[in-house]
C-alpha cells in the first residue's frame, strides 16, 4: 500500500472516529433535552430515558480510540510537520478538553444523576435540577468543542 493510499485510509478512519464521537454527543444532547421533562415529575421514566444513553460511553470510547490512533498515524506520515502548525495545536487542546469534559463532568454527572433519581427522595429534587443544568452546559460545551475542531480541521491556518 502506498503512503498516499494509507493516508487516505487513515483519514477516512479518522473522520469516522470523529463522527462517532460527535454524533453520539449530539444524540446524548437530544435525549437529555427530553429527559429534562421527566426529571421531577416522572423519575422512573427519567431513569428509563437515561438508560438509553448507557451505551454512549462505549461508542465515544471506540470513536476516541480510532481518532487518536489514526491521528498519531497521520502525524507520523507527515513526519511531525503538522504538529507544528497553529491550528493543530489548538485542535489538540480542544481534544484534551473534550476528553476531560466527557470523563470528569459528563460521565460523573450522569452517574450521580442516576443515583439521585434511583433514590426517589423528593428532598433531592433541587440537587437533581442543579446537576442536570451542569450536565446540559457540559454537553453544550462538548458540542461547541467538536464544532471548533471540525472548523479548524477544514481551515487549517
Distinctive features:
157 residues, 5 helices
Q: What does this molecule look like?
A:
This protein has helices at residues 3-35, 43-52, 56-77, 86-119, 125-155. The protein is mainly alpha-helical and 157 residues long. It starts with a helix and ends with a helix. It has one domain (3-155). 19% of the residues are buried. Helix 4 packs antiparallel against helix 5 (125-155). The chain is elongated and about 60 Å long. It is built from five helices and no strands.
Order of helices and strands: HHHHH
Report the strand count.
0
- Can you tell me the residue ranges where pLDDT is under 50 for at least 5 consecutive residues? none
DSSP helix fraction: over 70%
Task: Report mean pLDDT, rounded to a whole number.
Answer: 93
Quickly give the structural class: mainly alpha
Shape: elongated
Q: Helix and strand layout, with pairings?
A:
Elements: H1 3-35, H2 43-52, H3 56-77, H4 86-119, H5 125-155
Brief characterization of the structure:
This protein is mostly helical and 157 residues long. The protein has five helices and no strands. The chain has one domain (3-155).
Amino acid at each position: 500500500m502506498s503512503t498516499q493510499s494509507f493516508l487516505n485510509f487513515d483519514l477516512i478512519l479518522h473522520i469516522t472516529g470523529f463522527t462517532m464521537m460527535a454524533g453520539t454527543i449530539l444524540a446524548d444532547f437530544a435525549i437529555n433535552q427530553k429527559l429534562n421533562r421527566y426529571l421531577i415529575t416522572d423519575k422512573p421514566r427519567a431513569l428509563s430515558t437515561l438508560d438509553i444513553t448507557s451505551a454512549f460511553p462505549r461508542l465515544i470510547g471506540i470513536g476516541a480510540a480510532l481518532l487518536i490512533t489514526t491521528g498519531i498515524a497521520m502525524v507520523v506520515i507527515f513526519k511531525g510537520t503538522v504538529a507544528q502548525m497553529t491550528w493543530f495545536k489548538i485542535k489538540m487542546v480542544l481534544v484534551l478538553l473534550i476528553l476531560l469534559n466527557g470523563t470528569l463532568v459528563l460521565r460523573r454527572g450522569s452517574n450521580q444523576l442516576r443515583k439521585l433519581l434511583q433514590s426517589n427522595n423528593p428532598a433531592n429534587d433541587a440537587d437533581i435540577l442543579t446537576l442536570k443544568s451542569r450536565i446540559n452546559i457540559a454537553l453544550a460545551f462538548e458540542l461547541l468543542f467538536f464544532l471548533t475542531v471540525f472548523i479548524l480541521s477544514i481551515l487549517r491556518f
